[in-house]
Amino acid sequence: MEHELWVTALFNDYLAGLGRGILSLVGMTSDHPARPWENWITMELLVVAILMILAALVRSALSADKPGKLQHVFEGIYGFIKYTAQEAGLHHAERYVPYLGTVFIFILSMNLIGIIPTFESPTMFAQVPAGVAIWTFLYYNFHGIRETGAGYAKHFIGPVAWLAPLMILIELIGHFARPLSLTMRLYGNMFGGEQVTQVFLGLTYVLIPAVFMGLHVFVSFIQAYVFTLLTTIYVSSATAHEH
Predict the structure, then answer these.
(1) pLDDT tens digit string along 120-142?
(2) Would you say 230 and 186 are in contact if contact means Cβ atoms under 8 Å apart?
(3) DSSP letters of 23-76?
(4) CA-to-CA distance for 125 and 198, rounded, in angstroms?
(5) 5 phi and psi, to 5 degrees?
(6) Rounded CA gap, 81 and 102, in Å?
(7) Residue 94: inside a domain, yes or no?
(8) pLDDT exceeds cutoff 60 at 1
(9) Domain count of the chain?
C-alpha cells in the first residue's frame, strides 16, 4: 500500500483481523492481507463517526426557545434542502428531506475533510461516490414503485405503444447510466481538485495553496449540492403521478 494515512495505519495495526473478516463475508480478499484497510474506507468511517457524534450533540441540545448555533446550522440545511426539493417539483418534499439532507451533509463532510492536514477526501476514490450513487439509484426506484405502483412501468414505456420496445431500451440505459454519471462527476472533480492542491503545496506553502484550498472548499460545496440536486430530480421524476 502506498501512502498509508496514520488513521489507516491504526486500523491496520490493531484491527487487521476485523478487516480481513469483513472482506471474507463479501467474498473479497485484500491485495495486502496483513494490512487490509484502505485509506478511503478508514476516512469514510471517520466521517461517519464524526457525524454521529455531531448528531448526538445537536439532539441533546435541541431547544425551541433557545436554539444553539449547531441547531441553527442544521435547521438552515433542512430548510435549504426542502426548498430545493419543492422547487424541483418534488411533491411532499418533507418525506424525502431526511435522505436528501443526509446525502448532502455526508458528501460535503467527506469532501471537506481532505483540507485537514494528514487526511484525505474519501470522495477522491471512485468506490465512495459509487456506493452513494448506487444507494441513490435504489432509493429513487423504490420510492417510485411505492408511490405509483404498477404505474411506475409507464415511465419506461412512453406515450406511443408501438415505440414501447425502443423506449424501454432507452429508458433502461438512461436509468443505469445515472449511477455512473453521479459517480464520475463527484469522483472526477474531487480527485482533480486534490491533485491540483497537492501540486501547488509542493511548490509553495503560503499564498497559492491557500487560494487552491479555498477553491477546494468551493468545489466541495458545489459537488455536494449538484449530487443532492440530481438525486432530488430523480426522486421527483420517479414519484410523479402525472408523468
Answers:
(1) 999 999 999 999 999 999 999 99
(2) no
(3) HHHTT---SSTTS---HHHHHHHHHHHHHHHHHHHHHHT--SSS--HHHHHHHH
(4) 16
(5) -70, 160
(6) 10
(7) yes
(8) no
(9) 1
Q: Do the beta carbons of residue 77 and residue 101 sit within 8 Å?
A: yes
2 is a domain residue: no
* 187 falls within a domain: yes
Domain holding 207, by residue range, is 38-239
pLDDT above 90 covers a percentage of the chain that reads 56
**In the numeric block, which cell numbers belong to residue 204?**
509553495
For residue 10, tell me if it sits in a domain. no
Each residue's pLDDT tens digit, 85-132 = 999 989 889 999 999 999 999 999 999 998 888 899 999 999 999 999
CB contact set of 19 (below 8 Å; sequence gap of 6+): 11, 12, 30, 36, 37
CB 11 within 8 A of CB 37: yes
